[in-house]
């Protein structure tokens, strides 16, 4: 049976192991956090000593990492992926990175006779399930397709490497922008004496409960939505600068995320923490953060 090496077994990586447990794939796992490797072993994966070890023991290598710096480090390290690759293997990077990172990884892999696809994933789309956006040549996509179908509920081959990441960044821009707009609306109503819960209860708007209740703790392990969207909006702005694409709204939203990340507490990782940015602008630090009483 083919073996899948999963490098990075945090929140996403462990979900992959759960899905692969019901397939014909064997799994081997590596993470810098030994406790995550132990959790992976509980899911049936063998433990690898390094990214290179995981790579040598696998036909498919899946990278599930936080971002560009981690992907570059795992690929290029002395005990990393590149030095252990052999012709005929396939690398699937599900990390959301800068598109140039994916293009560089593709070139590194091609030089070694290895197929590479980028396959960033989202579970936040209106459609239920985990959806992958895939970028790569037809040949590379063909070699990875069966595995991708096991890792996701649906997927879309967008085109060449880089394009899937652009699509994922567009999704992140929408998710982050909508949260920013809702945070501003919630603070506007509350700062002017109106209970923002009316937006939900009377109009049926799907304003986040976390914004209404000021619940900023991260609900899942990992970076958290606040840091992830700050990272990904930054990648989008980098791309826009390089291509000349105008992103004035994204720029304003990103500045709000940047400012909030700098001020958020260690237990405030959810994207709803962005509400604190508008509270700061309105000198709301001393306010009793309960729904305001409506003025008759």
UniProtKB/TrEMBL annotation:
<dbReference type="Pfam" id="PF03446">
    <property type="entry name" value="NAD_binding_2"/>
</dbReference>
<dbReference type="InterPro" id="IPR029154">
    <property type="entry name" value="HIBADH-like_NADP-bd"/>
</dbReference>
<dbReference type="GO" id="GO:0008442">
    <property type="term" value="F:3-hydroxyisobutyrate dehydrogenase activity"/>
</dbReference>
<dbReference type="GO" id="GO:0006574">
    <property type="term" value="P:L-valine catabolic process"/>
</dbReference>
<protein>
    <submittedName>
        <fullName>NAD(P)-dependent oxidoreductase</fullName>
    </submittedName>
</protein>
<dbReference type="Pfam" id="PF14833">
    <property type="entry name" value="NAD_binding_11"/>
</dbReference>
<dbReference type="InterPro" id="IPR008927">
    <property type="entry name" value="6-PGluconate_DH-like_C_sf"/>
</dbReference>
<dbReference type="GO" id="GO:0051287">
    <property type="term" value="F:NAD binding"/>
</dbReference>
<dbReference type="InterPro" id="IPR013328">
    <property type="entry name" value="6PGD_dom2"/>
</dbReference>
<keyword id="KW-0520">NAD</keyword>
<dbReference type="InterPro" id="IPR036291">
    <property type="entry name" value="NAD(P)-bd_dom_sf"/>
</dbReference>
<dbReference type="GO" id="GO:0050661">
    <property type="term" value="F:NADP binding"/>
</dbReference>
<feature type="domain" description="6-phosphogluconate dehydrogenase NADP-binding">
    <location>
        <begin position="3"/>
        <end position="158"/>
    </location>
</feature>
<keyword id="KW-0560">Oxidoreductase</keyword>
<feature type="domain" description="3-hydroxyisobutyrate dehydrogenase-like NAD-binding">
    <location>
        <begin position="162"/>
        <end position="274"/>
    </location>
</feature>
<dbReference type="InterPro" id="IPR015815">
    <property type="entry name" value="HIBADH-related"/>
</dbReference>
<dbReference type="InterPro" id="IPR006115">
    <property type="entry name" value="6PGDH_NADP-bd"/>
</dbReference>
